[in-house]
Write a structure and sequence with these properties.
Layout: H1 18-25, E1 30-35, H2 42-55, E2 60-64, H3 65-70, H4 80-99, E3 103-107, H5 113-125, E4 130-135, H6 139-145, H7 150-155, E5 177-179, H8 186-199
Parallel strand pairs: 1-3, 1-4, 2-3, 4-5
Helix pairs in contact: 2-8, 4-5
The chain binds adenosine-5'-diphosphate.
Residues 36, 38-45, 107, 145, 147, 181, 184-186, 189 line the site of adenosine-5'-diphosphate.
Length: 204
């Protein structure tokens, strides 16, 4: 957990409770946390789901690993410490989106269980739904797809600390949903996400 540096700061609750906000906006916020190996399909599935939800009129926003590293997290690399800070910031940002009534879709490898659990705890503390989606594609399939040529570079020793090659991926122990893009189409994965969102009453 990051330390609190500033002192003499006070939480301002505003005039609206979350309940009032969500009711008046006719929205329910949540975070769908996609985790899995590079090239497992997180961004592809999250993008397709985002498009589908927005077409249904549901406010939804995708936070994507590489995109966030271009901006908010541009000062972070891939050391274990930086990966942890990367995920902590995303957890906080996703929670803000969810609190605002949006469905936040995060697509990050997020290889370490303790970092993901910290994000879950952040949401649990304020009773905001956190749904962990394990994008469970075998590494052989990811490596064969290799859309960005990263596995090739990692195998050649040009990238150090690459998840699944010389850095561990810790699979979720109790994810709310497991997708198998090795055998499921993108459409099937999206349908599974929609079913889960409906069963949790996040969308109607
Ligand atoms: P990640 O975000 O996990 O790094 P990407 O979504 O960027 O993964 O890349 C996954 C690649 O696999 C894409 O090129 C995508 O088109 C391809 N792909 C093939 N079949 C599937 C599937 N069933 N589900 C998701 N992606 C798939």
């Amino acid at each position: 957990m990051a330390e609190q540096k500033a002192t003499n700061i006070h939480w301002h609750a505003g005039n609206l409770s979350r309940e009032d906000r969500w009711r008046d906006l006719k929205a329910r916020g949540a975070t769908l946390w996609f985790t899995g190996l590079s090239a497992s399909g997180k961004s592809t599935i999250a993008s397709a789901l985002e498009q589908h939800l927005v077409h249904l009129g549901i406010h939804c926003y995708r936070l994507d690993g590489d995109n966030i590293r271009h901006g908010l997290n541009k000062n972070l690399g891939f050391s274990a410490e930086d990966r942890a800070e990367n995920i902590r910031r995303i957890g906080e940002v996703a929670k803000l989106f969810a609190d605002s009534g949006s469905v936040a879709l995060t697509s990050f490898i997020s290889p370490y269980r303790k970092d993901r659990d910290l994000c879950r705890a952040l949401h649990d503390k304020d009773a905001i739904p956190f749904i962990e989606v394990f994008v469970d594609t075998p590494i052989e399939v990811c490596e064969q797809r290799d859309p960005k040529g990263l596995y090739k570079k990692a195998r050649a020793g040009e990238i150090k600390g690459f998840t699944g090659i010389d850095d561990p991926y810790e699979a979720p122990l109790k994810p709310e949903l497991v997708l198998k893009p090795g055998v499921m189409s993108v459409e099937q994965s999206v349908a599974a996400c929609l079913d889960l969102l409906r069963s949790r009453r996040i969308i109607a």
